[in-house]
């Protein structure tokens, strides 16, 4: 991380150094592309954790960057501590039901993924990403500065950067990534606007400490607790193993003055415990999607393009997915092995993913923790037993919020202009369950190899060609890649049990983001295949 002078011109300017901006900088910087990240926040507030769920898919990207183990070591809440979401009448009350291994939190390797999920406060993730960016000579992060104006154009982007002392500097860039969130300048600069709605209930987040929650036994061990039976519903969980907790209380109108955080926490816990409030934040869920993702040389990434409600923990992870997608494509263009037409695939690939994610998370807005005016649900007698049993059955509607690997791992790009369809049926998208598929556009199915390596660890940094049968000939594609200067790694994997059947072909071309670009027994026209996968413009028909 370099606090250097502002250069007059850069290949890529990133407005905003949150998770999406830093992830994009890593994708570009690891490939040697010069990046300037401009981030106004000088302090990452650990008391306002915001996102807490790093998904299975985001952990796979962190693994690719060599950061997965570093995040697990830094995370204050190890996966081994708890994996279940518990619904209860209060932390000292009765357990109603539980959802095991929520958010992909498993403690033993699974065949379907290279990594398990991880609970970690967003500031901790950002600290790690900032440190990783600082290790790259090609990335400069200006902390305490902000992009205040952007002028998009066909040949370059011009931006105004305001420094910590109020002085301004003009910068020209070949491309600008707008990672500056809902209040940034980038979306307005290209004339894009949000479309969508807001959640029905206001919410209050509280970060607090309590000795009682460390000293007294709780009703169950969970990673999150959804509390039912209090005057207001809500959820809470540990931030660490040293007495720091977070809570989200639903239906709290801070304007009306009903936001005594100590009283609210005590009501959710179910007893008059000690509560040291560290921070509070009022907020309301947003289900918003930008009507377009790019201008001419400006691309919207993350929250600048979409605002997801927090239910299911998808917002921050969707931002990282955007950054990975646009990052490798922009690097390919700037390094000269793909034309600018490749960038036209960013919006048609990522906008449908955001729409589906918003719809899935927003659908849970109707099933928030119900509140009860009385305490019958906490009764120790038959009335309480019957109520809790009925609630446990009704709460199964929440399962897709905690088990959503169909969304997390199953998003695909089958209709992308840079993916080659093979005419076979594409699986219908699912939400809760995930079935690996090798169809073009899908995330490459994962497998653990005989030597213990992950299949994903064998992939090259750019395009990879998997050969699953020793008789298949990768030479035509390899020769065409060499002729074009396209980085291609041939990965020989014959005889891996079940892998050929899972991927469905002898040869599989995989993109840098681990999505399948093409599969087939052989390539009849390697030049045409690369033209499609790299976004080479199709010539217009000759006029008659």
From TrEMBL:
Keywords: FAD, Flavoprotein. It comes from the Bacteria. SUPFAM superfamilies: FAD/NAD(P)-binding domain. It comes from Geodermatophilus aquaeductus. Residues 10-360 form the FAD-binding domain. This is 2-polyprenyl-6-methoxyphenol hydroxylase. Its cofactor is FAD. The keyword Flavoprotein applies. The keyword Flavoprotein applies. GO terms for molecular function: FAD binding; oxidoreductase activity, acting on paired donors, with incorporation or reduction of molecular oxygen, NAD(P)H as one donor, and incorporation of one atom of oxygen.
């Amino acid at each position: 991380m370099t606090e250097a002078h502002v250069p007059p011109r850069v290949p890529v300017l990133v407005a905003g150094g949150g998770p999406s901006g830093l992830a994009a900088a890593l994708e570009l910087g690891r490939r040697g592309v010069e990046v300037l990240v401009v981030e106004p926040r000088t302090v990452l507030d650990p008391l306002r954790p915001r996102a807490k769920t790093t998904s299975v898919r985001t952990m796979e990207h962190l693994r690719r960057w060599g950061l997965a183990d570093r995040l697990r070591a830094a995370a204050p809440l190890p996966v081994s501590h708890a994996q279940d979401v518990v619904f209860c009448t209060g932390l000292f009350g009765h357990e109603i039901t539980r959802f095991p291994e929520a958010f992909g939190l498993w403690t033993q390797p699974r065949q379907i993924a290279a990594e398990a999920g991880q609970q970690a406060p967003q500031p901790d993730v950002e600290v790690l990403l900032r440190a990783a960016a600082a290790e790259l000579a090609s990335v400069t992060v200006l902390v305490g500065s902000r992009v205040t104006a952007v002028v998009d154009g066909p040949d370059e982007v011009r931006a105004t950067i305001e420094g910590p002392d109020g002085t301004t500097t003009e910068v020209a860039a070949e491309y600008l990534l707008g990672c500056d969130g809902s209040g940034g300048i980038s979306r307005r600069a290209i004339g894009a606007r949000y479309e969508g709605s807001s959640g029905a209930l206001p919410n209050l987040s509280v970060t607090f400490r309590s000795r009682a929650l460390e000293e007294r036994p709780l009703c169950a061990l969970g990673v999150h607790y959804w509390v039912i039976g209090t005057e207001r519903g809500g959820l809470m969980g540990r931030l660490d193993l040293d007495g720091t907790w977070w809570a989200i209380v639903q239906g709290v109108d801070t304007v009306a003055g009903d936001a005594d955080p100590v009283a609210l926490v005590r009501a959710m816990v179910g007893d008059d415990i000690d509560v040291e409030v560290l921070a509070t934040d009022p907020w309301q869920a947003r289900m918003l999607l930008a009507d377009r993702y790019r201008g001419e040389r400006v691309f919207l990434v993350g929250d600048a393009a979409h605002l997801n409600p927090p239910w299911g923990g998808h917002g921050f992870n969707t931002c990282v997915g955007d950054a990975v997608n646009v990052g490798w494509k922009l690097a390919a263009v700037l390094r000269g092995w793909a034309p600018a037409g490749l960038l036209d695939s960013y919006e048609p690939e990522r906008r449908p993913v955001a729409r589906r994610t918003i719809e899935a998370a927003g659908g849970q807005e109707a099933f928030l923790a119900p509140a009860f005016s009385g305490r019958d649900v906490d009764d120790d007698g038959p009335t309480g037993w019957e109520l809790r049993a009925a609630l446990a059955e009704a709460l199964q509607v929440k399962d897709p919020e905690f088990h959503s690997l169909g969304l997390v791992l199953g998003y695909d790009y089958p209709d992308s202009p840079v993916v080659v369809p093979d005419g076979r049926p594409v699986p219908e998208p699912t939400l809760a369950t995930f079935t690996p598929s090798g169809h073009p556009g899908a995330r490459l199915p994962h497998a653990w190899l005989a030597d213990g390596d992950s299949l994903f660890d064998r992939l090259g940094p750019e395009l990879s060609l998997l050969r699953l049968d020793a008789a298949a000939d990768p030479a035509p594609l390899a020769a065409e890649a060499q002729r074009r200067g396209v980085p291609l790694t041939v990965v020989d994997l014959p005889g891996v049990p079940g892998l050929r059947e899972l991927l469905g072909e002898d040869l599989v071309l995989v993109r840098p983001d681990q999505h399948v670009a093409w599969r087939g027994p052989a390539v009849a026209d390697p030049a045409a295949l690369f033209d499609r996968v790299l976004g080479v413009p199709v010539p217009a028909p000759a006029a008659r």
